[in-house]
Amino acid sequence: MQAFKELAEIVRKEKVAEDLYRLTVKAPDIAEFSRPGQFVMVRTVEGMDPLLRRPFSVHQVSGGDMLQIFFKVIGKGTKALAGMEPGQQVDILGPFGQSFTMAEDSLHILVGGGIGTAPLLFLAKHLLKKNEVYSLRVLLGARTGNEIARVAEDFTNLGLTVDIITEDGSLGRQGLVTDLMTELQQDKQIMVYGCGPYPMLRAVAGICRENSWACQVSLETMMACGLAACLGCAVMRADMQGYVYVCKDGPVLDMNEVAWL
Amino acid sequence: MQAFKELAEIVRKEKVAEDLYRLTVKAPDIAEFSRPGQFVMVRTVEGMDPLLRRPFSVHQVSGGDMLQIFFKVIGKGTKALAGMEPGQQVDILGPFGQSFTMAEDSLHILVGGGIGTAPLLFLAKHLLKKNEVYSLRVLLGARTGNEIARVAEDFTNLGLTVDIITEDGSLGRQGLVTDLMTELQQDKQIMVYGCGPYPMLRAVAGICRENSWACQVSLETMMACGLAACLGCAVMRADMQGYVYVCKDGPVLDMNEVAWL
Amino acid sequence: MAVESPKMNVDIGSLRLSNPVMTASGTFGYGEEFSSLVNLHRLGAIIVKGISLLPRQGNPPQRIAETACGLLNAIGLANVGLERFFSEKLPFFDAIETPLIVNILGDTVEEYQELAARLNDEERIAAIEVNISCPNVKQGGVAFGTDPEMAHKVTHAVCQHFNRPVIVKLSPNVTDISLIARAVEDGGADAVSLINTILAMAIDIESCRPKLANVFGGLSGPAIKPVALRMVWQTAESVSIPVIGIGGISSPEDAIEFLLAGAKAVQVGTANFINPRAAEEIIQGIESYMVKKGFASIEEMIGRARKS
Amino acid sequence: MAVESPKMNVDIGSLRLSNPVMTASGTFGYGEEFSSLVNLHRLGAIIVKGISLLPRQGNPPQRIAETACGLLNAIGLANVGLERFFSEKLPFFDAIETPLIVNILGDTVEEYQELAARLNDEERIAAIEVNISCPNVKQGGVAFGTDPEMAHKVTHAVCQHFNRPVIVKLSPNVTDISLIARAVEDGGADAVSLINTILAMAIDIESCRPKLANVFGGLSGPAIKPVALRMVWQTAESVSIPVIGIGGISSPEDAIEFLLAGAKAVQVGTANFINPRAAEEIIQGIESYMVKKGFASIEEMIGRARKS
Ligand SMILES: Cc1cc2nc3c(=O)[nH]c(=O)nc-3n(C[C@H](O)[C@H](O)[C@H](O)COP(=O)(O)OP(=O)(O)OC[C@H]3O[C@@H](n4cnc5c(N)ncnc54)[C@H](O)[C@@H]3O)c2cc1C
Ligand SMILES: Cc1cc2nc3c(=O)[nH]c(=O)nc-3n(C[C@H](O)[C@H](O)[C@H](O)COP(=O)(O)OP(=O)(O)OC[C@H]3O[C@@H](n4cnc5c(N)ncnc54)[C@H](O)[C@@H]3O)c2cc1C
Ligand SMILES: Cc1cc2nc3c(=O)[nH]c(=O)nc-3n(C[C@H](O)[C@H](O)[C@H](O)COP(=O)(O)O)c2cc1C
Ligand SMILES: Cc1cc2nc3c(=O)[nH]c(=O)nc-3n(C[C@H](O)[C@H](O)[C@H](O)COP(=O)(O)O)c2cc1C
Ligand code: FES
Ligand code: FES
User: Fold this and answer.
1) Distance from CA of residue D27 to its chain's centroid?
2) What is the CATH number of the domain that holds C24?
3) How many CB atoms lie within 10 A of CB D201?
4) Annotated active-site positions of C, please?
5) What pLDDT is attached to residue C154?
6) Closest chain A residue to the Cα of C68, Cα to Cα
7) Is the ipTM value over 0.85, yes or no?
8) C120-132: pLDDT as tens digits
9) What is the pLDDT of residue A76?
10) Rounded Cα distance, A232 and C265, in Å
11) Selected residues 18-47 of chain C with any CB under 8 Å from a CB in chain B
12) pTM confidence score
């Protein structure tokens, strides 16, 4: 595994919506080696509080040396990050973890919930290298519209069809993203790529099992290192006989590897 | 003692020299009650590292509601403060401590060393309310010129005569600020107001004793609270029988109150 | 089921507090120092700086040093002594209704006993908090707080001479704090408070000398909170008298953690230095949390995290 | 008197280290994990994750939580077990010259003994570090590290079966760590390392449950440094074998404090997570400090703060 430590200059900061930011940083090595689904570990302050780095999916790479992360302000780490300005530097490690496996001859269903959509744009771009637009479908769910409006646009700009559903009905239909899955037509082999909160992923995996669709999910856990060293990011294996480690065996895992507790 | 807690907006930040900053904040209550020699306790980060507030002398007040501090980057607290920008808010407590006693019918000698000059500008302005410019003398010393060039200008703009001496000779004469004191003419009763590092203050006090001049000094110690609660800021009393507390009994103290260990 | 005005009061023995948040000894002076910044009437109780029979000047400087999220202090129990406490500090409390708790310290069991007897005569004093982290000079300087037998003895002596609640404040510098807690409960304590500071040090690499003149000092502040919380959990499991949680409490969330772990009340220490209004804000924050979570009383919250 | 190339090497028993900075067990995986970020050859030694005879899956999640300047972990000693360590992890070290130290753990004295005997056959292993913070299942689950007698026993057993240096790693959760250190010295240890993590906990106020599934965990990181430094100071005073300092070391300054307090070497733990290059930067920083201060060798620095 090739990983790098870069002091990356922030070149752009976009406030996409309330508490939702997109940061573009110059990190040539990490950008070059990143694959869709992988993540980086970001130091959010110079001091020791908060102590640990924070994990973020690689949202996009561009221009060969630019890396984007797309994040939501949750607690003190993301708050500090949101307070940083272009010109300042952030200390980034990565890329880490397993990327999505690009299925062949499939209908690719990208299912994202809220900020969980972060890694899907990068995935879509990669899939489009070998697949036609009509073999990709993007299903996005969120609590409220402005959480995903902007990313939805980015998918649309790639020529993709995007189905949107929100809990409050403020954008697209009203409901949960899993509602959109029940309407999928099974003309082809299906590969589902799911990213979002754990309960959503569990529901997604349930539907995929029922329909015998293949499914990869990107899991989130607390992480101290991202380096497979602390063993903090354990998730119960499907056979209940041990653990997978999200930073090394994941974050992208086949739904059948995990015990959906 | 009337003290306040204010979330003060930074309205101006000047980089006076390498590692030397002047911050103007809007803190109406503290500004109104501040007297020369008093200090404020500033929180330098939102997180808990560094944990403690940092003490800074009131450098100036202006326009009724503006407060200035003048500081040097020493460690992590001052570094964080130097990284703040206009528009951001700082959490300030104060004003605390004993102010300078304005002597009457005296020749007022303001002796400052390096960043220790911070409280003297405010003092000079107050003295000038009741005294003519010729009854004030300002003696400034520093390691190198740019540490005091800017403040010297401010004194000059008040119409005051400023004698400058630097260790490297880059501004004014070469030597220590105490060298300037030996040339003082004793035509009148003399009151010395000394601010600067401890060894300098000890030397200043020594000269004052020899010449039977009155002398007030502004002391610096580690402080956890500034509120006379932690008892951390102890300095041995002249009688060696106990301690004075710099945040409450000082920071301005008569030279005869302190054991110059 | 949101509750509009949750019941914030708690009882520590016969002492009724309007809310469970007190200020910790040595971090709030004698109360007066904070009067222009804090509404003292809002506090559950005020615990003043530890008092000895005779005045103590304390340790030479440096007395304090900052560490990562922590404060190191070796004040050396500097205090005005009992006489000056009565004459200079106590009158201030005439105008304040908040319960006043006096923290006491001594070098011998007899000193603790005499302090208790003298304080018993002052009706204004609602309770005593016994600091047993001090070295017992008669028994070779081992702290009262690290030996269950000595802890029992000093507790018993104080309880015999003070007819209102006695809180015994435990030292964390032991293998098993619940042993000491049980000894103190047996000795008659109405409550235990914990933790006092953790023995620690720092070195100045420029001078190559310890930062504190006393070499060792006590660590306090956010850094120690997880250790304090664990000890409160263990102690609440071991005794049936109220446990008062102390250690790094700086926010409402911190205080709530201690209550959920089994503390009946909490003390705010080092946080007073960083935010003099910390205790007030914590009281407010606990109340909002209770409304949000539907807790009708503090009692309902106590030890909640222990019941699964 | 500036020194151009200060001597950075130190000896731990018969083990010669090119510099006094090692990576702490459980924070550096099996070495390989850091190979693309760190120049492993620069390190004084690499200590791998604690190994038991049989593989252990570890505790259920959550296993970690963040605290103020600290990390709380209850990994539950998850490890691949001795066999897989030999077959999967050890070969990586063929290409690396840095001394490899294996941290071992067991539930009984016999387990420790067998581990020592098996590791003795692998020449690549330069030393053993014995983690005695584990509960002794045969004796009611009290940790080996809190009872001097048990600590002595396990040390002795390991030393009998391992013919290279044995380091015993002490737990800080005791009243007097120097008692344990002396017991371990008597047992034949070539060095002691300290501290392991401090027992602590955190509570999630939303769910009203402990954050760690295991309830208690070990606190590490900058928060514990002042406590670790004090214990190293006390231990260096009490034993004549080398003391290896551990606890919150994140910068050259931190490491230097431990050396000045009397540690002969240091271990970098949690800091590896925040900055994988921490150990390397610390080595560099110690060297610069020595040049600046005119220390010709690490030996000269050791315990400097103790001599006034
Ligand atoms: C592989 C991976 C990829 C991720 N990608 C993204 C992304 O692209 N965009 C994004 O906005 N977020 C992403 N996250 C989640 C992000 O890491 C957390 O939101 C962030 O760490 C919260 O930090 P904080 O300091 O703001 O919150 P804190 O104050 O630390 O915590 C607030 C809450 O968030 C939870 N939390 C804290 N740290 C983590 C963590 N490391 N993992 C999971 N939960 C945590 C805590 O339990 C707590 O309840 C990802 C997480 C993982 C593991
Ligand atoms: C009453 C008073 C008034 C002051 N006025 C000014 C002023 O107007 N301008 C200015 O630049 N500085 C002033 N100082 C000094 C200023 O408080 C320290 O420089 C500052 O606290 C250093 O913080 P830091 O985090 O950058 O350094 P740290 O990383 O905390 O420490 C760096 C070094 O500074 C010393 N130090 C740290 N904190 C203090 C402290 N509270 N008091 C004294 N020394 C300390 C430490 O021992 C250490 O050696 C004043 C201090 C006092 C007590
Ligand atoms: C500067 C200072 C002085 C203290 N003085 C006393 C004291 O006199 N008596 C006492 O029992 N505890 C004393 N303590 C301990 C505190 O009351 C409290 O137990 C400890 O600081 C842990 O809480 P905290 O982390 O909230 O500060 C003192 C603490 C500090 C920081
Ligand atoms: C995630 C984690 C796992 C650890 N695993 C072990 C272990 O297996 N064996 C051991 O002796 N110590 C273990 N430790 C303790 C560390 O080696 C070290 O003693 C402790 O973390 C204090 O140092 P630090 O503050 O630098 O991290 C572990 C620590 C952490 C944080
Ligand atoms: S985050 Fe440390 S092992 Fe996965
Ligand atoms: S700084 Fe706390 S008493 Fe002076």
Assistant:
1) 10
2) 3.20.20.70
3) 29
4) 134
5) 96
6) A48
7) yes
8) 999 999 999 999 9
9) 94
10) 33
11) 26-29, 33-34, 36-37
12) 0.96
